[in-house]
């Protein structure tokens, strides 16, 4: 059984997960194609974060939601520790993030992921996201995949 909850961007378990994600991404992509968000550089009003914990309260995964000035929102920092993959935690994180977006009355949810992250791309497709062109603040990048979903 897993528990998903919202946490402050300064949460120490969240920081450990984001650090692991940064190491993972740095092995897959060059710096110029690594679009990592520094959570501490974003205001509390623009950012919401979630974390998944197992029954023993160990942190298994995380995700974040960045609200843009234009009313859209962006999924950021989704990560599942390797030992917890295959347990549908990605779907739980995306669902929690979509719930937060609905609370804010945003309808457009976007994301950027990388071409070497095929399981992530499959997850987002399964959750109803479609490939789209790059959106601000990004520019087209051959190592990036941009996706979007209109929420009801």
From TrEMBL:
UniProt GO MF annotations: acyltransferase activity, transferring groups other than amino-acyl groups
Pfam families per UniProt: Acetyltransf_1
Record's keyword terms, sorted: Acyltransferase, Transferase
N-acetyltransferase domain sequence ranges: 2-152
The keyword Transferase appears for this protein: yes
InterPro entries the record matches: Acyl_CoA_acyltransferase (IPR016181), Bact_Acetyltransf (IPR050832), GNAT_dom (IPR000182)
Superkingdom assignment: Bacteria
UniProt cross-references to PANTHER family, sorted A to Z: AMINOALKYLPHOSPHONATE N-ACETYLTRANSFERASE-RELATED, AMINOALKYLPHOSPHONATE N-ACETYLTRANSFERASE-RELATED-RELATED
Record-given protein name: GNAT family N-acetyltransferase
Protein's organism: Pantoea wallisii
